[in-house]
């Protein structure tokens, strides 16, 4: 068994325990492996060990990897990083799922590109829950106008919400943000009469995915815990 296979097994067990500890079925949580800076050889190992959903945070870095794996059946590629409007068309072509829609402008660009390709692209709205936070994401007040405009974007399917809480060593510090995202999702669901589609919650990373699962995450985005520390090894440029 390779290190990667062992890591995957361990993370799956932790996902399972976190789900059971909050009375949720383990199958309700998708493990999304974040492969930014990770070379295709390592991704091969992850595929061999049973992973099929991968996330990248930069369109340009992702392109050669996604092209490399084009012939590998049943892989899904998720864009989890901030999207600039000039990369939206390429993103719509390459990715199966975009987690980082945070403005009407980006949604419109993705819609136009997806429509031209005859593709329906599932998306999540990235929510910024903290005022001081430098990270991208729409404020909860902007969310309603983005959701309202989704009616025009027939080539997009709104499937839920995503957030990145402010970084903290202590996963418990992230818990209130995860809980707020879940409550916001429930509120929007009731206001929009089910228009949030599958109501995915993409939240939780290597250091806090168990807490995120306890608060309702349906997709956890895990990089370091699967592939090791990006800054101290593997190949690829640092973030
Ligand atoms: C890098 C990244 C992750 C994974 O982070 P780890 O701490 O390595 O698990 C998750 N989500 C986004 C948006 C990222 O950019």
Structure description:
The chain is α/β, with parallel strands linked by helices and 239 residues long. It has one domain: TIM Barrel (Alpha-Beta Barrel), CATH 3.20.20.10. Helix content is 42%, strand content 18%. The chain contains nine helices and nine strands. Strands 1, 2, 3, 4, 5, 6, 7, 8 and 9 form a nine-stranded parallel β-sheet that branches. Helix 2 links the parallel strand 1 and strand 2. Helix 4 packs across helix 5. The C terminus is likely disordered. Bound molecules: pyridoxal-5'-phosphate.
Helicity range:
40-55%
What general outline do the C-alpha atoms trace?
globular
**What is CATH's topology name?**
TIM Barrel
Low-confidence regions: 232-239
What's the pLDDT, averaged over the residues?
Answer: 92
**Distance N to C terminus:** 29 Å
Number of domains as seen in the coordinates: 1
Pairing-aware structural class of the strands and helices?
alpha/beta
Corresponding CATH architecture: Alpha-Beta Barrel
Alpha plus pi helix count: 9
Our Rg estimate from Cα atoms comes to 17 Å
Beta-strand proportion: 15-25%
